[in-house]
Specification:
- This protein is about 30% helix and about 35% strand.
- By secondary structure, the chain is an alpha/beta fold.
- Strands 1-6-5-4-2-3 form a six-stranded mixed sheet.
- Helix 3 (about 55-70) crosses helix 4.
Length: about 180
């Protein structure tokens, strides 16, 4: 029973850690974010992102969707500019499970132990981890006022799953904009 519980805990940790997007934010605490009502994309910053143009479009559409859902309006004369930056790296997870089993009595080694020894199971998985930076820049001051950084496993099995993962990244990041939004 203890063995089954341990496997369930390990499975939950492994599967949830691969699917979640970890988000951290940073912002200028002296900025009044209530002043920002309109946005536009900052093309010079977006052009520097080292991803395909298709993925850039997917990210920008997802950002636009999330911001308009929050009441922001895309504008030719915006209050804030939105830029993106991406990074990716290969990650390797190594998990070792030492499972003892058998029958016997007493402490220590027992030559009469049924099925003795340890069962060493090593699981190795490799995946790409992506990081998406979403920057909000005050247009008048030309200063970064808020940054959201989402990190998680990338799943590039097919176009639909890729698009869904991008939407998940963006949704988790934009949920924290403006500061305090996740508490409302």
């Amino acid at each position: 029973m203890k063995y089954i519980k341990m496997l369930l805990v390990i499975a939950v940790v492994v599967f949830s850690s691969c699917n979640t997007v970890k988000v951290v934010t940073d912002y200028d605490a002296k900025v009044d974010f209530d002043q920002y009502k309109t946005f536009a994309f900052y093309k010079p910053g977006i052009d520097k992102a080292e991803i395909s143009d298709l993925d850039k479009k997917r990210i920008l559409r997802a950002i636009e969707f999330e911001l308009t859902a929050k009441g922001f309006v895309k504008s030719e004369n915006p209050d804030v500019l939105v830029s993106i930056f991406t990074k990716s790296r290969e990650r390797v997870n190594v998990n070792q499970n030492n499972l003892g089993y058998g029958f016997g009595w007493g402490w220590g080694w027992n030559p009469w132990m049924f099925g003795g020894g340890m069962n060493n199971t090593v699981n190795i998985s490799q995946y790409s981890e992506g990081t998406l930076f979403v920057d909000f820049i005050d247009k008048e001051k030309k200063e970064l006022v808020w940054q959201g950084i989402g990190t998680g496993a990338l799943k590039i099995q097919n176009r639909e799953k890729k698009e869904a993962r991008i939407k998940e990244f963006v949704k988790e990041i934009i949920a924290k904009f403006p500061p305090g939004a996740e508490n409302k």
